[in-house]
Write a structure and sequence with these properties.
The complex is a heterodimer of chains A (228) and B (52).
Chain A lengths: L1 H52 L19 E6 L9 E5 L3 H4 L3 E3 L10 E6 L20 E5 L3 E13 L21 E9 L6 E14 L5 H4 L7
Chain B lengths: L1 H7 L4 H27 L13
Classes of the chains: A alpha+beta (228), B mainly alpha (52).
Chain lengths: 228, 52
């Protein structure tokens, strides 16, 4: 009788653990997206309101506004290839809590529009997955970075898949750490393959246009790419 | 385990069922709000940055 009771309890414990594991998968794959999409949309809205209202905040030596807004957000990234209404906040830092709120800017890399490498990371899956479709970006696709004073338009120039420790991709001159940059470029990093952490999908682009906010006409620059 | 729980809950059958439901909801909420966010960083599936 005793043995039967113990086995019965053990079975119930195992079934309970199984259900909790399934719950965890649901939370990670579904709920983090739901929560993050809501948060990120609110941060973008906040930023846009700030951009429209306040006088342009002074930008520090590093290209990041000295006084950054709530959550450390300072820019909005728009990628027409990901959809006409695609807009995600860019925040300073690439820690876990930051990446749950949007796209993270690698501290120490160039600011938006600056000579050097404006390097950012974003989730490929979960937490709103801002870079879910990063592998669909083709040469010439636009990556638009909106800041308080200026809108920077980058165009994709190359893609590569690297291992997580290959930090050369976010060097001022991507692939040539130590070289002095003469060009303003952008680098996006995300995980690869999806739902894995063995590699990183990396997209490079170069600055093609800097447009003062007053002269910014979204429809000219945010049209969806036709081919591809 | 669950049989023991059922035996120890007070009230008629419908009241016990209601308490079980509330308990289950509390466990799910606790997991979503505190347990899972704490566990997730220990797993590598969502790393998207390059670094040493």
């Amino acid at each position: 009788m005793r043995v039967r009771r113990v086995v019965g309890w053990a079975g119930e414990v195992l079934v309970t653990l199984g259900v909790l594991l399934l719950l965890f998968a649901a939370w990670q794959l579904w709920w983090t997206d739901v929560a993050a999409d809501r948060n990120q949309a609110a941060i973008v809205q906040n930023l846009e309101r700030g951009f429209a209202a306040a006088p342009v905040a002074p930008v520090g030596e590093n290209g990041i506004p000295a006084a950054i807004g709530k959550n450390g957000a300072f820019a909005v990234v728009r990628i027409p290839r990901f959809g006409a209404d695609y807009a995600r906040p860019v925040l300073e830092g690439t820690g876990r809590p930051v990446l749950a709120l949007g796209v993270g800017h690698y501290v120490g890399t160039a600011g938006p529009g600056q000579v050097g490498n404006f390097a950012v990371a974003g989730h490929r899956t979960t937490y709103g997955r801002p870079f879910h479709d990063v592998d669909t970006l083709a040469d010439g696709d636009r990556v638009v970075v909106e800041t308080a004073g200026t809108v920077y338009v980058y165009e994709v120039t190359s893609r590569e898949i690297v291992r997580p420790w290959q930090v050369g991709v976010i060097a001022p001159v991507p692939g040539s750490p130590g070289d002095t940059p003469s060009q303003a470029v952008i680098t996006l990093t995300s995980c690869h393959p999806k739902y894995s952490a063995t590699e990183r999908y990396v997209v490079h682009g170069r600055l093609v246009e800097s447009i003062p906010r007053a002269q910014w006409v979204p429809s000219t620059w945010l049209a969806a790419p036709t081919e591809g | 385990m669950y049989a023991a729980l059922w035996r120890h809950l007070p009230g008629p059958r419908w009241a016990r069922a209601l308490q079980c439901l509330l308990l289950a909801l509390a466990v799910v909420a606790g997991c979503f709000l505190w347990v899972f966010p704490a566990v997730s960083p220990l797993l590598p599936f969502t790393d998207s940055t390059v670094g040493p």
